[in-house]
What does this fold into?
Amino acid sequence: MPEVRLDGVRFAYPGGVEVYPEPGLTLALGDGVTALVGENGAGKTTLTKLLIGLLRPNQGSVTVAGVDVASATVAEMARIVGYSFQNPDDQLFERTVKAEVSFGPRVLGKPAEDVERGVAWALKACGLQGKEEVHPHDLGLSERKWVAIASALAGEPKVVVLDEPTLGQDYPSRERLRMLAAQLADLGRAVLVVTHDMDFVGESCPTTVVLSHGVVRYAGATEKAFADRSMVDDAGIQPPHVTALARSLGMSESVSEAAFLAAIRW
It folds into this structure.
């Protein structure tokens, strides 16, 4: 499993707004599907931009799959990290779904057979078969999100970053997304899900990182991520609905529907 490491990372935007305070952000990721959660302004988006080289740390180092991001170009990082934007309309510009999904691996110069394989797999995994010739902007928000996700996957990157992937998704689409994240992990990819959707976190992400004001407040198993209620409140997040239900019934805390039903049967 490719590892993502941030060691003592300090970063400030022009004007002096510091995102990660002393002693800097230190974090190691790479074990399957990880959720990155926290309130707006916690530093989540800055972290993802550091991973893909759009931002460079003022201090410290960022390493992705053994590559020091500071020494790599954005194009080189695009071979390693597939990134799906929160707003798909910030990402989509081609005239057909297939052209959009194939754009990344084509401009990276991948062999034609690799492009075809990656695009075909991504289209199928994202439920877009039969819509290859449709203009992306003729699709609804849910399907535009899936085009953006497919575009991130088509180059077969080692690391996948999904920013608010459940936006506009109904229950079947959320299930497809959950299964896709698990499949990517089984294929040896590291998956980072940046989200405010705690229900999806509980169902789909075995590991959770809680970020608050540029500080890691928790990093570990999702089943324990919401146990410290003071920390959760301070971080501006809410536990999954099933966790709140379990608490109200005086049961042991559960973060997923399966765990909750197992506790009831027990």
Q: What stands out?
A: The first strand starts at residue 4 and ends at 10. The chain has a mean pLDDT of 95.
